[in-house]
């Protein structure tokens, strides 16, 4: 039997004996002088035998060689991605900053000044007697978060334009408006308990002088809608967070002896043109609303359903309100 002829009887080990002899022949330098690269080349040459090894042996050796390859070059795609990232970073450093966009959006100095109030024509459903001769007095109560405090100031600004007066004495009020919260059941229970107190007061008022009008505003009104009017007959009007502009009309309808409701949500209402009347005399802090609604749709939160989609106030409107508050504090 020749030395280069494959045989299963060589060394009694079959293919393995042939593979070992081939490895010995191509082992290269003497022991102690060969490097890792020479060893790998020797192993690769040993795999080239006259008779192919079994598939499992070949796949195992190739997998081992792929992990032991010296100085592997990075893939071309990785090099391309790193180059693109470096190019993006260099362009980002030389690009416009946040200050650039704020300066381009900042209105002129004149826009910071409060506009001159132009007398508005009275609404057709509010006669001269309602506006001038016998102004109605409004009592306001707020439940819930700071957003409801801001809503109360906005609602009062709208009513003040229509000739209403504000009172802090519940006994002399002609209209009671509750800005409500619906984030938890306890907040709604507080409002129901408060309505029970007003029920007794309304019954006494009807016997003594003109009837007392009670309105529910805010998130609870938006969630329950007309159910409030059905459950509590003493409630005269219901208005959602986006219906405060309609309050004079709703109150006029209530004065005629009917119940009124407006719970329509808006996609663009921000009350940007209405400067809230901040009620705290001599106060040095105030809430400035910069957006309304929410788009997050958290499973535990009702805000997207009671305040509608998210929308932001124009920047000029926010700066105008801040300037107004600054002028008020400067005049104290």
Automatic annotation (TrEMBL):
Highest taxon of the lineage: Eukaryota
Protein name per the record: CDK5 regulatory subunit-associated protein 1
Biased composition (Basic and acidic residues): 1-12
Classification via PROSITE patterns: MTTASE_N, MTTASE_RADICAL, RADICAL_SAM
Radical SAM core domain: residues covered: 280-332
Cross-referenced Pfam families: UPF0004
Cofactor(s) needed by this chain: [4Fe-4S] cluster
InterPro entries, per the entry: Methylthiotransferase_CS, Methylthiotransferase_N, Methylthiotransferase_N_sf, rSAM, rSAM_sf
Ranges where the record places region Disordered: 1-37
Domain MTTase N-terminal: 136-256
UniProt keyword list: 4Fe-4S, Iron, Iron-sulfur, Metal-binding, S-adenosyl-L-methionine
GO CC term, one of those recorded: cytosol
Transmembrane intervals: none
GO molecular function: 4 iron, 4 sulfur cluster binding; metal ion binding; tRNA-2-methylthio-N(6)-dimethylallyladenosine(37) synthase activity
């Amino acid at each position: 039997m020749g030395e280069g002829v494959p045989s299963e009887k060589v060394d009694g080990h079959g293919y393995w004996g042939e593979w070992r002899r081939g490895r010995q022949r191509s082992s290269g330098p003497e022991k102690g002088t060969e490097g890792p690269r020479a060893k790998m080349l020797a192993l690769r040459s040993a795999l080239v035998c006259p008779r192919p090894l079994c598939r499992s042996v070949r796949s195992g050796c190739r997998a081992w060689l792929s992990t032991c390859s010296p100085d592997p070059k990075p893939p071309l795609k990785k090099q391309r991605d790193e180059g693109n990232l470096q190019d993006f970073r260099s362009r980002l450093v030389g690009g416009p900053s946040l200050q650039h966009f704020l300066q381009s959006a900042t209105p002129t100095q004149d826009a910071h000044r409060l506009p001159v109030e132009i007398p508005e024509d009275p609404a057709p459903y509010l006669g001269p007697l309602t506006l001038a001769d016998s102004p109605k007095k409004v009592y306001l109560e707020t439940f819930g978060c700071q957003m409801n405090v801001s809503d109360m100031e906005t609602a009062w600004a709208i009513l003040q334009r229509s000739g209403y007066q504000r009172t802090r004495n519940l006994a002399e009020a002609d209209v009671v408006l509750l800005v409500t919260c619906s984030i938890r059941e306890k907040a709604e229970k507080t409002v129901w308990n408060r309505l029970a107190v007003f029920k007794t007061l309304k019954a006494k008022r009807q016997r003594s002088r003109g009837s007392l009008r009670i309105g529910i505003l805010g998130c609870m009104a938006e969630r329950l809608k007309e159910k409030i009017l059905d459950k509590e007959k003493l409630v005269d009007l219901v208005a959602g967070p986006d219906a405060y502009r309609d309050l004079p009309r709703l109150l006029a309808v209530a004065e005629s002896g009917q119940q009124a409701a407006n719970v329509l949500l808006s996609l663009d209402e921000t009350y940007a043109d209405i400067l809230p009347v901040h009620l705290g005399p001599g106060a040095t802090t105030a809430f400035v609303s910069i957006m309304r609604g929410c788009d997050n749709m958290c499973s535990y939160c009702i805000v997207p359903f009671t305040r509608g989609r998210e929308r932001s106030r124009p920047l000029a409107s926010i700066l105008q309100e801040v300037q107004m508050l600054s002028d008020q504090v400067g005049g104290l």
